[in-house]
Specification:
Keywords: DNA-binding, Phosphoprotein, Transcription, Transcription regulation. It contains ten helices and five strands; from the N terminus they run E-H-E-H-E-H-E-H-E-H-H-H-H-H-H. The protein is an alpha/beta fold.
Length: about 220
């Protein structure tokens, strides 16, 4: 059973999402919160698999709530999915950097919404190639470099290659084709790189790849 926490300051939005989720046999809404502070408390209490968090809320907004969840070892199994009305904007970018597994626009069709919840619950990032390209474009126009990351030295050559391909927006299947390996092996390379670099998901891996200089916009 997939356990979901809803965090949104608009009751109508919460009730709409809950109505969809309650129809599914494999999904259970364990709690609802109207702001990030309450959401964080409920996340600690219920330990959901997925937290659907509105990006703009009173008291504690979605970005700060995401940051606090990502920083708490006890909440390592909670996958935050940001909800937004505005598509991919600077706030979404900041939320991904804070540790969100991905984001959804609130006018998403029900089938895609339910699929996204299941994807997030599996621990896979909701980072479609189109979203990755927008992340890349952000670095093209406004490169941000956090400096050297010592953990990069721990990556094997194949893991570094896999990270570079993730940063280009490729799925595991396409990475497998490019590296001439099986999709399972491609996923293993990506997962091992994420573990070594302490990246929560593919979104974090893409950001770290650019901020560390492992990948640069000019050689994408």
């Amino acid at each position: 059973m997939i356990r979901v926490l809803l965090v949104d300051d608009q009751p109508l939005i919460r009730s709409g999402f809950r109505a969809l989720l309650d129809l599914e046999d494999d999904i259970e809404v364990v709690a609802e919160a109207s702001d990030g502070r309450e959401g964080l408390a409920l996340a600690k209490e219920h330990l959901p698999d997925v937290a659907l968090v509105d990006i703009r809320m009173p008291v504690v907004d979605g970005i700060e709530a995401t940051r606090r969840i990502a920083a708490d070892p006890a909440l390592a199994g909670v996958h935050v999915v940001i909800l937004t009305n505005y598509g991919f904007d600077e706030y979404v970018f900041d939320a991904l950097r804070a540790g969100a597994a991905g984001f959804l626009v609130k006018d998403i069709v029900p089938e895609d919404f339910l699929h996204a919840v299941r994807v997030a619950a599996r621990g896979d990032a909701l980072l479609a190639p189109s979203i990755t390209r927008k992340l890349i474009d952000r670095y093209v126009t406004q490169p941000l470099h956090a400096g050297p990351v010592p953990e990069l030295e721990e990556l094997t050559a194949r893991e570094r290659e896999a990270v570079a391909l993730v940063a280009q927006g490729l799925s595991n299947d396409r990475i497998a084709d490019r590296m001439v390996i099986s999709p399972t092996t491609a996923k293993t390379h990506v997962n091992r790189a994420m573990a070594k670099l302490r990246a929560r998901d593919r979104a974090q891996l893409v950001i770290l790849a650019y901020e560390s200089g492992l990948v640069t916009p000019r050689n994408r």
